[in-house]
Structures are given as structure tokens and as C-alpha cells.
Amino acid sequence: MEEKNYLREDPQGGTRRFRARKAGYRLIFGRTILTLILLLVQIAVLVYLFLSPSRIVTIISSVLSFGLIIAIINRNGQDAYKITWVLILAIVPVFGGLFYIFFEFQPAMRDIRKRLNTVKTEAKPFLHSIPGADGIRIADDSDMAGVCRYLADQGFPAWKNTSVTYLSSGEHYYEELLKQLSLAKKYIFIEYFIVNEGEMLDGVLNILSRKAAEGVEIRFLYDGLSELLKLPAGYSRILENIGIHTRIYAPIHPVLTGMQNYRDHRKIVVIDGETAFTGGVNLADEYINIHSRFGHWKDQGLLVRGEAVRNFTLAFLEMWNVAEKSQQENYRPYLNPPQPVMAADGYAVPYTDDPFNDEDIGEHVYLDILYAAKKYVHIMSPYLVIGSEMVQALTFAAKRGVDVEILLPHIPDKKYAFLVARTYYKVLLEAGVRVFEYTPGFIHSKSFVSDDRQAVVGTINLDYRSLYLHFENAVLFFGMDAVLDAERDFIQTRSQSQEITMAEYDRFSRLEILTGRLLRLFAPLL
Predict the structure, then answer these.
(1) pLDDT, tens digit (0-9, with 9 covering 90-100), for 66-101
(2) Neighbours of 481 (CB within 10 A)
(3) What is the dihedral of CA 327, 223, 225, 216, to 10 degrees?
(4) Looking at the structure, do residues 204 and 121 belong to the same domain, yes or no?
(5) How many structural domains does the chain have?
(6) Distances from the Cα of 381 to the Cα of 28, 75, 333, angstroms
(7) Is a pLDDT exceeding 80 seen at residue 290?
(8) Sign of torsion, CA 277 283 284 285?
(9) Which residues does residue 379 pair with via DSSP β-bridges, in sequence order?
(10) What range defines the domain where residue 328 resides?
(11) Same domain for 319 and 294?
């Protein structure tokens, strides 16, 4: 049986791989299977209560469901999300009611919401006190002043002294990442959703271990799903042993909790406060096409230098201190590095979104682009699972003459998401939106480009999870050559894609369309 190697400290100070337990042994006795079994036991208890013939249970469940339905309808939030929960409560009152309570009223969720608000309150004054953080007065581009004012009010000022380099593939991203990591002198901050063993992670860790030995401060944050599904047990301790300070956001425990629904989907790298990376690329081999899972993997990223890196730095430090309780961070030393003067004329606004604020920041920026567009909006996204607001914005832009085009995968990573996405094609095509599927494989890029003047690249998919349930990040940039680079990449990718016309849509399997429409009822929870 094939064995896997894990990273550990080398006596000479480098890194090497060492033999671990066999894969089959890990699968049977590892924490992943144990966690899943315990979660299934808890779900089975809920199902038993639902099937219980007890009259008392029936009465209690009816009262509970009725009360929860009233509460859900009157809550702020997306109508589709509320409708899904109401439907579940109506069909399976006991199971649905208890499941809703598990997800929405956990002490752990209140704790992290409180921690997040505290961290943001502590951090906000540091950024806005820095000269040059101009999120309101965009004198040379008045059309962008509104969205910049909005983002500044949310804690994300716009910066002018910044350059943005568009990276059109995971391979290009990885090449630049290794180059910039090797130049680090003071600190490296890394935050990813997916971290998996392989050549890509090895390349990064080889540099990090060397930099740690040189005295560079390194912090590494990753989501708990990677700890459960991708990495060997105790991986954070392995990283600590080579000088990489490590934290895990929301580790998966064998207890039903709503926290398991809110993942850290962000991808952020900050180097010395002067250089930052973001985009769709995670630390796993499929993102750079070493390992092929769904045909060719199309991704993208950004390399940001200059003043705007401060937004990234603060965003990482906030999440670092949310992941674990710690003493108040002194942010100022990390936010005031000497900044080189950049020749770029435009502005960059790195921003984040989270499920615990009252603003759907990621969606609002996308909607602003659609409603402000005059000539075109070109979109790349791996998923299309959207609410009525986004459907209306897309179709309205097309109806008023804007060239709206959406590039989606032809080979999906999640079949259910692919089926749901295709249920939107008809209404989009009828309004004049052009839809393309990337035939060589899977698109993981997340970008909006509009009118040769503004673009957004980041981690925010066009689905409920990204727009409402996950921690996300992106960069709005305008008046820069990188916008044109993003548009050229869109055109190049489109040339490898199949346009889905109404005639093509009519040839889709009726069974698959029906299945997609049924799944769409529960799309906000998928």
C-alpha cells in the first residue's frame, strides 16, 4: 500500500519528508472518520426525534417550528436563504427546528462574532490614521468615489501609491510567490483555505523554513477543513517545529455547530508589509496543474505592491487574532513599513467580507459594477448559484445594452453546483447575457472586469457561500494597466470556451435541469 511522507524538522535546519502511517490505516482510524461518525450519530438522534410517534413531541415540534418560521421571516438577510429554512421547517419540523438552532444559536458563534467585533474595533484606528488612506476623496475619478466611500466606511480605504500585477494562471502565481517569499526580510503572513501536501506546498515550506532560520517572523493560518480532510494529524505542530507560527481557523470537532458552516475561504500572503498576493489559488498541486482532477485548472491571482498592502496586513492580523484568543495586537509596527513610490496612476482597494457583519460587501461591490457599467462586464466564476438581486442586476445590465458575459466551467468540481448553475442559463440568455463554458476543464478564477477601467479579483465566488457565509477577500482596482491585463485574459480564456446559446440550452438533459431546479431549493445551504 502506498505510503505518504510528511514534513518534519531536519537536524541541519532544513526540511525533509518522513514516513507516516499507511494511508489505509489513517483512513480507518484517523480523526476524519471518527469525526464524521460522531456527527452522523448526532444527526441520527435528530432523525429519531423527527420520527418519534410521541404526541408531546409532535406538539412541541409544531410550536417550535411555527415560532422559528416567524423569527426567520422577520430576520434581516437574503430571502432565498430564509425560504430554504422555512421549507425545511415545514417539511421536517423537529429535525429542521433543532438543526436551525444548532446552526444559528450556538455559543461558539456568539463568541467568534464578539471576538471579531472586538478585533475590528481595536484595529480600525491604526489604518485610518495613516496619511494617504483616501477612500472618500477620489478627485481624479469621480465615478468611483461612491463605491470607494462605501468601502472606506467599512474599514477599507483606497490607496494610490500602489502597483497591481495581474497573474493569469496558478503557475504564474506560484512562480511569483516563490520569488517574493525568498526576498522577505522581516515577516511573512500566510492565510489559505486549502492546504494540501505536494510539490506546491513543499516549495513554499522550503523557503519558509529557511527564512525562519534567518529570523524572519512567519505566521501561517489555514482553515479547519484542511486540518480535517487534507493534512496529517498534528500538522500545525510540525510547522511550529520548523519556526512557523501556526493557527487553525475553526477546527472541525465532532459536535454539531453552526461554526462549521462559516469557513475561512480567504487567500492572503503578505511579505514585509510591502508585497501581497491574493486570488483563487490555494496551496495544493491541482491549482498549478501538477495534479489534474477536472481537466485543465484555470485560475488567477494578483501581486500587489505599495500602500494598499496595508489593507491586506490588517486583514490578516485581524483573522489571526480571531482564530485564537490572544492579547491585543500592536498593529502599528506592521502597518508603517517604508513604502516605495509607485508609478501607477490608479487606485487599489483590498477589502474583506465576513458572515458576521450586517453588510454583504462582496455582493455590493459586484452589484455596483453591474449597475455602473456602460460598455461591458466580463465575469469568471467557478459557480453560479445566485439570488434574485444578482439575477436582476445581470439581466438589467444586458437589457440596457451592456455586454454581459459569464465564463463558467465545463468540467465541474461539484456536480450539484454545476446542475444548479445551468438552471439560471435560460433567464440570462433571454435577457441577452452571454454564457460560456471553459471546455478544457475547470475555471476557479473569480473576477469582474468592466469598461477597461475597473476590475475585481479575489476569492469571492458567485454563490451563497462566498457571498453570505464565508470569510472572503478581494481587490477592487481601477485606472491601472492590470485592468486591461485581466480583460485580455478573459478574452483568451473565452476563446477556449463554448458559448451556450438558447439552442444549446434546449439540448440539455431535461432530467438534469429538473434535478438542478430541485437542488436550487436548498442552494443556500449547499
Answers:
(1) 777 787 777 776 777 777 777 777 777 766 776 777
(2) 14
(3) -100
(4) yes
(5) 3
(6) 36, 29, 37
(7) yes
(8) positive
(9) 406, 448
(10) 108-353
(11) yes
